[in-house]
From TrEMBL:
<feature type="transmembrane region" description="Helical">
    <location>
        <begin position="419"/>
        <end position="439"/>
    </location>
</feature>
<keyword id="KW-1133">Transmembrane helix</keyword>
<feature type="transmembrane region" description="Helical">
    <location>
        <begin position="195"/>
        <end position="213"/>
    </location>
</feature>
<dbReference type="Pfam" id="PF19814">
    <property type="entry name" value="DUF6297"/>
</dbReference>
<feature type="transmembrane region" description="Helical">
    <location>
        <begin position="451"/>
        <end position="470"/>
    </location>
</feature>
<keyword id="KW-0812">Transmembrane</keyword>
<feature type="transmembrane region" description="Helical">
    <location>
        <begin position="88"/>
        <end position="109"/>
    </location>
</feature>
<feature type="transmembrane region" description="Helical">
    <location>
        <begin position="476"/>
        <end position="505"/>
    </location>
</feature>
<keyword id="KW-0472">Membrane</keyword>
<feature type="transmembrane region" description="Helical">
    <location>
        <begin position="129"/>
        <end position="154"/>
    </location>
</feature>
<dbReference type="InterPro" id="IPR046264">
    <property type="entry name" value="DUF6297"/>
</dbReference>
<protein>
    <recommendedName>
        <fullName>ABC-2 type transport system permease protein</fullName>
    </recommendedName>
</protein>
<feature type="transmembrane region" description="Helical">
    <location>
        <begin position="388"/>
        <end position="407"/>
    </location>
</feature>
<feature type="transmembrane region" description="Helical">
    <location>
        <begin position="160"/>
        <end position="183"/>
    </location>
</feature>
<feature type="transmembrane region" description="Helical">
    <location>
        <begin position="323"/>
        <end position="341"/>
    </location>
</feature>
<feature type="transmembrane region" description="Helical">
    <location>
        <begin position="347"/>
        <end position="367"/>
    </location>
</feature>
<feature type="transmembrane region" description="Helical">
    <location>
        <begin position="46"/>
        <end position="68"/>
    </location>
</feature>
């Protein structure tokens, strides 16, 4: 149970270091001795988790099944069979996003207490980390097998193909987790892996416009038993090799990397508990530039507010992957219109545009939350806000112009008023709605817990808490309502412009 260390602390009594198994057993026993949770409380928490998972799963399943039925009813000459379009790029994008998330978090993490009192001791670090790594790989096996099985079911009902797809998904899941663990100890490899995942996500979105050219680029051959069995065999071989490498090298992971991932995870958990999405963005940006270190300085241009706007545009260009993702997301409205769901095109264009362009308002977000920084500029607050918002406005105009062909002619879906809005009206309405939602979202203040509490099904919440959380998405959804329901063009353009003016001058 113990191993001896060479240098004795006192004559005749050597120092003994417990093994990792013995230490885990001791810690487990201490936690049980000091735990104040009863069996009823544990079962109550388990019930709440199961209820939440089943409720969210049933809602998501119902929504997806209805959308799939609407897609299947599209039989016109301009429609494309969604079975040939969605499964393969969807699986590639989900895999790339999962690996990107694992790389951003660690994936091996440890709290500051564990890093101080456990990982800095002479106890074998590999023994302490193997069990969390095994748990991650077990979860990857379950999720990977389930995801690929669902994707195969969307294309084929062959039982051998479904089973081979489950095996292939399990192997790919283990490969993804093991590769992320190995990359954690090598900053250059981790950065290259993250860039590769970003390229895969953008590529899966960028190839969708090829459908507009009626190119036969999609095929269901991948969902046959042969390719899936071959993929499962290759994934199994690679997974075994990577798992063996993880077992050998996991004990050499730097403690600072483990603790940094734990701090990020705890910060994200706190932001999720308070529903403060701005805090999530701040944490991810801070970790990214902390890992990157010093950057190359760029010379600005212009003076006054023009110089501020140019500097903000240069800051946005420091993150080319965000710009590439914004360009790749342009394929979403075209794909939705192409597969036969035009009723969702205007709404999804605004939602995707909001998600794509909101990261460009980082400078405006900092200025809005820092009164001391605003006082450092020799101009009033309102012109300063507009100068920092200029790159976001320009990006919204360009993004709406690029998405316009997919949205034009898809309004008036419910009430059917006289005629479609002119293309210029649709363009300006899209741009104003996206910009209004983005500006209102990045200029919101920190979540305040002061004031009276209101009893809700989720517990006691401060007054105005919900309104604070939905600042930004509310303008994006309200501004697109006239265009979706085919209201007169004066209202379809006037409401987004009014929301944009309010967000720019008042926040």
């Amino acid at each position: 149970m113990t191993a001896r260390v060479g240098a004795p602390s006192t004559p005749g009594r050597p120092i003994t270091v417990p093994t990792s198994r013995h230490l885990r057993r001791e810690l487990r026993q201490r936690r049980r001795d000091h735990s104040n949770r009863t069996l009823g409380q544990a079962l109550d928490d388990l019930y709440l988790w199961l209820f939440a998972v089943l409720m969210v799963g049933s809602m998501a399943g119902t929504t997806l099944s209805r959308a799939w039925l609407e897609i299947a009813r599209c039989s016109g000459p301009g429609c494309v069979d969604a079975r040939l379009v969605l499964p393969l790029p969807l699986g590639a994008a989900v895999l790339a996003l999962a690996v990107r998330t694992l790389v951003a978090l660690g994936p091996m993490v440890a709290s500051r207490a564990s890093g101080t009192f456990l990982l800095s001791t002479p106890v074998d670090r590999r023994g302490l980390l193997l069990r969390p790594a095994a748990a991650l790989m077990a979860g990857a096996i379950v999720l990977g097998a389930g995801l690929v099985s669902v994707l195969v079911l969307l294309t084929s009902s062959h039982p051998v193909a479904i089973g081979a797809g489950a095996l292939a998904g399990a192997g790919v899941g283990v490969v993804a987790v093991a590769a992320s663990i190995l990359a954690q100890g090598a900053p250059k490899v981790r950065r290259a892996l993250g860039i590769g995942c970003d390229v895969v996500v953008v590529a899966t979105l960028a190839v969708v416009p090829l459908l507009l050219l009626d190119r036969a680029v999609w095929s269901t051959a991948w969902a046959r038993p042969g390719p899936l069995v071959a993929c499962a065999a290759v994934a199994a071989v690679v997974a075994v090799a990577l798992v063996a490498a993880v077992v050998r090298r996991i004990g050499r992971l730097p403690r600072r990397e483990l603790v940094a991932g734990g701090e990020l995870l705890s910060g994200l958990a706190g932001a999720a508990a308070s529903l403060d999405t701005s805090m999530v963005s701040d944490l991810l940006v801070a970790r990214r530039f902390r890992q990157r270190g010093a950057g190359r300085t760029l010379r600005g241009h212009g003076s006054g507010l023009v110089g501020v706007a140019v500097r903000e545009a240069q800051r946005s260009l420091r993150s080319p992957q965000r710009l590439a993702l914004a360009v790749g997301l342009l394929a979403v409205p075209y794909a939705v219109d192409r597969i036969g769901v035009p009723t969702l095109t205007p709404l999804l264009a605004v939602v995707v545009g909001y998600l794509a362009l909101r990261p460009l308002g980082g400078g405006l977000h900092v200025i809005a939350r820092s009164a001391g920084l605003r006082r450092a500029f020799p101009v009033a607050d309102r012109p300063l806000r507009i100068a920092f918002a200029a790159p976001l406005l320009a990006a919204a105009v360009l993004w709406a112009l690029a998405a316009l062909p997919a949205v034009t002619g898809n309004s008036m879906l419910v009430f059917g008023f006289s005629a479609p809005e002119p293309a210029a009206v649709t363009w300006l309405a899209l741009a104003a709605t996206i910009a209004a939602g983005g500006i209102r979202s990045v200029t919101r203040q920190r979540v305040s817990y002061d004031g009276a509490l209101i009893s809700t099904p989720a517990g006691a919440l401060p007054a105005g808490f919900v309104a604070q959380i939905f600042r930004g998405p509310d303008f994006a959804l309200v501004g697109i309502v006239p265009l979706v329901f085919g209201l007169p063009w004066v209202l379809a353009l006037g409401l987004p412009l009014a929301l944009l003016a309010f967000a720019a001058f008042r926040g």
